[in-house]
């Protein structure tokens, strides 16, 4: 995992290997009909999401390979970026959803801050992308915005991006004719 630093904002980026990507693709495609039934217009006309219908898509759809890859990466990110290493995932807090971003779809600047005790981590896993269908921009914290540019991350199949949930981010518009499919999530780590 690579750690990018926009002090004090930290961004973790990793890439699943081919075997993990294949396993994730296989389990997602086997549940495609179930996933499609959960999609609705959650963030504008051109972004379909399961967020309004199901807040834990990993568990509901049995996406075990995807969940395992993400959870192992979340723990690795926290262990690499914190002095105290004894954190565990609070599965009662876990949220996960699928986003299908169609042509002209985008997401405004937002964060996932939940004002909770512990270490809240959010992120995205790119399931399907042509790499030109809308970049992810991470904003440095408000006190550092003059020293650092927004950190722009191009989508790539199998890429996982992690950051603290209170970090502001946005997704650029998909100006292509193909849909981008991604899985977003919120995790909370507690002692």
User: Helix tally?
Assistant: 4
Give the CATH architecture.
Answer: Sandwich
- Runs with pLDDT <50, length 5+? none
User: What is the residue-averaged pLDDT?
Assistant: 91
State the separation between the terminal residues, measured CA to CA. 23 Å
- Which shape, going by the Cα principal axes? globular
For the biggest sheet, the summary is: 9 strands, antiparallel
The oligomeric state of the chains shown is: single chain
- Please write the string of helix (H) and strand (E) elements: EEHHEEHHEEEEEEEEE
Helix fraction, binned, reads 10-25%
CATH-defined topology: Jelly Rolls
Whole-number tally of structural domains: 1
Query: Can you tell me the CATH class?
Result: Mainly Beta
Report Rg. 16 Å
Beta-strand share of residues: 25-35%
SS elements, strand count: 13
């Amino acid at each position: 995992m690579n750690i990018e630093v926009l002090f004090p904002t930290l961004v973790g980026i990793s890439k699943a290997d081919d075997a993990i990507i294949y396993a994730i693709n296989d389990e997602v495609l086997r549940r495609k009909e179930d996933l499609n039934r959960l999609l609705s217009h959650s963030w504008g006309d051109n972004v379909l999401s399961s967020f309004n219908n199901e807040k834990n898509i990993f568990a509901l759809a049995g996406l075990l390979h995807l969940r395992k890859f993400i959870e192992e990466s979340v723990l690795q990110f926290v262990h690499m970026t914190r002095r105290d290493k004894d954190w565990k995932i609070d599965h009662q807090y876990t949220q996960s959803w699928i986003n299908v971003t169609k042509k002209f779809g985008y997401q405004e600047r937002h964060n996932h801050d939940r004002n909770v005790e512990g270490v809240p981590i959010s992120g995205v896993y790119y399931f399907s992308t042509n790499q030109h269908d809308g970049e992810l921009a991470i904003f440095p914290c408000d006190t550092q915005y003059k020293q650092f540019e927004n950190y722009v991350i191009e989508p790539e199949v199998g890429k996982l991006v992690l950051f603290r949930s209170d970090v502001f981010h946005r997704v650029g518009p998909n100006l292509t004719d193909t849909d981008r499919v991604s899985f977003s999530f919120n995790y909370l780590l507690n002692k």
